[in-house]
Amino acid sequence: MQPIEWCGDHVRVLDQRKLPREMVWIVVHDAIEMTDCIKNMSLRGAPLLGIAAGYGLALEAQKKGKTGSALLSHLEDSGKMLGKARPTAVNLAWAIQRMLERARKDSHLGKALGDILREEALSLHEEDRQACSAIGQWGAQVLPQGNVLTHCNTGALATGGDGTAYSVLKEGFRQGKVTRVFACEARPFLQGARLTAFELKQDKIPFTLITDSMAGYFMWQGKIQAVVVGADRVARNGDVANKIGTYALAVLAHENKIPFFVAAPTSTLDPSLETGQGIPIEERDKKEVVEIMGVSIAPEGIEVAHPAFDISPARYVNAIITEKGIALPPFSESLSKLMQGGNSVAAI
Ligand code: MRU
Questions:
Q1: 3-state secondary structure of 88
Q2: From 128, 212, 232, 310, the catalytic residue
Q3: Per-residue pLDDT tens for 9-47?
Q4: What are the pocket residues of ligand 1 if the criterion is a CB atom closer than 6 Å to any ligand atom?
Q5: What is the pTM of this model?
Q6: Sign for the pseudo-dihedral over CA of 329, 333, 335, 337
Q7: Which ligand 1 atom minimizes the distance to the CA of 152?
Q8: What is the widest separation between alpha-carbon atoms in the chain?
């Protein structure tokens, strides 16, 4: 399933807020409409945010009116607007920077910027599709036999291909290593219950949906042999920002001696940050906590918090699976080696 599709003069975005009950497509004509889709969660998931920003800028570049340096500076403004839509997933800033660099580099070639940026956005999408398959292949090699627990949604709905952590599960299942997936619901926005359960059902992978607070119980019972999650940003030392609740899973996995794997494309690595301390954590609308599907579940006028992500310290991470290979601790060395040329799998 493709959650985003380039259609020439517009982009089709699958409205993920309505899944799994309805399949509704939103027609996006420019960077402002794309920014709205990102802010309101019609589309989400770190790699998909980058792809969406790429298409948003490509649509903007092919609009009639501005040319030359006026168009370049307009694209830079659009890039700033898109970049502010969600702060934690670094893939968004990464993709915007890549699109703008390409625009600056090739703007003198006489080719229309609209054509240049369309080409760049389509390659960004295709490269992420390929990265997802490579992540699946690498990840399946390190998975032990048995049941795997995952969090949030990291599948086709969150990426340009089969997913990050989800691709590892899918390939692991294809190879007969994964027996069953335990999918956490990912309260409060319920990406696990609504989206991952939808994808697992479609892919006919045996799974059990659990609430986030059940994870420790199933680990303690010996029902989970590995945890695989995605990431929204990874610092140089291997600290990982991911959906709220991931930190608790990392600690529980450590306590229960279960390997904890993070799967992410290299576009999720942030070499500018030494540790996870510097990662901005998005605070979302409190309504997402006190309402479920528009129905209020808590008393009015109470204090509510909604940090959408948390940081799992590198010491709880057994391996970071990327499209270029697998990084093992200590991550400051292995991640930078991997960025330079790829790393090989070692015993975990
Ligand atoms: O708030 P979301 O739905 O964009 O959060 C998504 C996640 O946290 C995913 O686990 C993450 O993007 C990593 S893999 C796609």
A1: coil
A2: 232
A3: 999 999 999 999 999 999 999 999 999 999 999 999 999
A4: 44-47, 89, 152, 154, 158-159, 164, 191, 230-232, 242-243, 308
A5: 0.96
A6: negative
A7: 10
A8: 65
